[in-house]
Design brief:
By secondary structure, the protein is of the alpha/beta class. It is built from nine helices and twelve strands.
Length: 312
């Protein structure tokens, strides 16, 4: 049994997962780099399957590489690219290397990618893919041919709580649970009311007794730079109220507030010592780490400073 499955099924602990960056080059050096960053923080990490309809190193190869570097993988499997024979081969092949966590999803349409002429397969839909993986976990291929011994699999899926038709979302959860899904990783929702209503619907239907919901947490940066300095105290108050242990601030830095011309507008962008101001107001936090993002880095971002604070 994977640690992910054990925590989901046998405890009431909060479980945090992440998504591993796609692998296109650099080999194990890149895997090792990101595994080292992610391992201390997450129980398990998703190995994606041609995410956003772009070709990358395969889900099976990525999951195996992650496991080799100490990361427990959740191997994503999409319906878009392969028929049921190839999908079954991937799942059984991955299980030979100890991959137990499987996350089934439909997959973005090819028009979302950079090879829009690619042929869509969709031999199976989402719930059918869940059923396929569950069947393999029981020791059978879809044809009924036996797999002995049966691979131990912990099967889940993905759901979007914010996409219309909203009333149909809970019905989709019911279908996936009936097919054997034990966990659902929820796609990003920028509408807290929709997410809350979705979760309430799952509970009202009694589905929460059979499946664990893992909402997506989005870490954003470059927000406070657009807040006028005189309004920052109210924002700091909200941030402190919502924080249980850590706060990560990543913004443009300056020792004191200055206004920068932004696309021809004044007083729309500011640089400031946001972490310093926060620490002066809230003495129950301390700075535990900080760094700099450089625009000429291998994975470029805006030049910005980040500060990690912890409640004491």
């Amino acid at each position: 049994m994977s640690q992910f499955e054990e925590l989901i099924t046998k405890t009431k602990e909060q479980v945090f997962t992440a998504e591993f960056p796609v692998i296109d080059g650099e080999g194990f050096a890149k895997v090792e780099k990101y595994a080292r960053r992610l391992k201390p923080w997450f129980v398990a990490v998703n190995a994606t399957d041609n995410t956003a309809a772009h070709a990358h190193a395969s889900n099976v190869a990525s999951a195996i590489a992650m496991k080799m570097h100490g990361i427990e993988p959740i191997m994503q499997v999409v319906c878009r690219d392969k028929n049921r024979l190839a999908i079954q081969a991937d799942i059984v092949g991955a299980s030979l290397h100890g991959i137990e966590n499987i996350c089934a999803l439909t997959g973005d349409d090819v028009t979302a990618g950079d090879e829009t002429e690619a042929r869509r397969v969709f031999d199976l839909d989402g719930p059918q893919l869940v059923r396929l993986a569950t069947t393999i976990g029981r020791g059978e291929y879809m044809s009924g041919r036996k797999i002995e011994p049966a691979p131990h699999l912990f099967v889940g899926a993905v759901e979007n709580p914010s996409a219309p038709p909203f009333e149909y979302r809970v019905q989709r959860v019911a279908k996936k649970v009936a097919a054997g899904a034990r966990f659902l990783q929820l796609q990003i929702s920028y509408h807290p009311d929709r997410l809350e209503k979705f979760c309430q619907g799952v509970v009202a239907a009694g589905l929460d007794r059979h499946v664990a919901l893992l909402p997506t947490i989005v870490l954003i940066k470059g927000v406070m730079i657009h807040i006028h300095p005189k309004n920052l105290k109210n924002l700091y108050k909200k941030i402190e109220k919502l924080s249980k242990k850590y706060i990560l601030i990543c913004e443009y830095y300056n020792p004191y507030p200055i206004s920068i011309n932004y696309r021809g507008y004044k007083n729309k962008l500011f640089k400031n010592d946001y972490a310093g101001e926060f620490l002066k107001i809230y003495k129950n936090y301390k700075l535990i780490d900080y760094g700099f993002n450089y625009h000429l880095d291998k994975y470029p971002q805006d030049d910005s400073n980040w500060f990690l604070l912890r409640k004491i």
